[in-house]
Amino acid sequence: MPQELNYLKETPSQTAGPYVHIGLAPGAAGFDIYKSELGWDIAGPNARGERIRIEGVVIDGTGSPVKDVLIEAWQANADGIYAHPEHPGEVEDGFRGWGRVITDFETGEWGFDTVKPGPVAGRSGTKMAPHINLWIVARGINIGLNTRLYFNDEVEANAADPVINLVEWEKRRKTLIAQRIDRDGQTVYRFDVCLQGENETVFFDI
Amino acid sequence: MVKPGEFYQRDREWQPPAYVQHYKTSVARSPKQALISLQNSMSEITGPVFGHDDVDPIDNDLLSNYAKPDESPIGERIVLHGRVLDENGRPLPNTLVEMWQANAGGRYRHKKDTYLAPIDPNFGGCGRTITDENGYYYFRTVKPGAYPWRNWVNNWRPAHIHMSIFGTAFAQRLITQCYFEGDPLIHQCPIVKTIPDPDAIERLIAPLDLNATIPLDTIVYKFDIVLRGRRSTLFENRLEGN
Which domains does chain A carry? Predict the structure, then answer.
């Protein structure tokens, strides 16, 4: 027997279940318990850059909206800096870059307000196009699904993005790209996620 | 200089697959295409930072965080405690741990839960805390009850507490469920059995921690949580670019 490596194994994942709101968004479950719930303001009041709204729906393999999803978003600020000690650079006071959103129990629609992130330094000198990292959990999802939301008005940056270009099938790349809508002077990006089927969203093993 | 680098890849044969026939809700909610594997970039090795200002000290005490003054929820008083570690065995300090659970009768305080068991007026059912400098956390609560759910006609969830953990990176984000030693429902449960490896299932079962149990007061269960570990970059691998 060689020596033992003694690494620990990652704790196995289990579904967030139908009552995820109790823990992570108790107001939506129907009660008020914390002084403040975490994750409802991604960018904070001082964030620079363009204020945008992201909206979408998560669709299951039957084509129906999923009405008990929780999504977490993680993004850089308008300068492409993450609010994290390992990312060189400063972010605005109050910018956390993280948020969570739940779907409407009746329609499955979700949406959050933030600022558009800037391009982020990628591996080995590359530049990643502006994007928001999403993590999706729900009843029936055994381990959180990771995807990225890119912006359809960043054509050149998207074409050069090292992650989009990892997706071998060009027709699948469009599932990562949110579509801009101008609504009464507000910039809204639509990003529908398909868990299965012909337009299945690209998910990543990060 | 040795500095923390990329995360070890997630063991997808240890973690549950997306599609599991006997957990019926997974059937229409499981991607069929292969995941695209990404080498870590800044987007994955960073993640939200939380501090003690984000939570109240009472948030980890479910015996009192929703109870009326001088009252407490009905049920077996327990403490669930443990450490958050990485795969290298290093503790993860200052990380956010959130949890939620049914009450002692197996009923959730949720507008979508219609089970026969009553709501407990003194029990909310959620807690949150930040690990200390040794990665340690604890919650005081009541032991949740088992409850039925619609899958096959006669499925019962074992008593469990849902746990949500952050770590320091978005790549470590994890939600899981903690079960209790000795519960015969654990190995009957199709959600538990989404995990293919029996050894992995054991990692989700909290043992009775008699040494930590508070005499004449509270029974204690121990639940350590392991998040992904990182390699030490002995050689520059240019993760950051330039």
Answer: 14-194 (2.60.130.10)
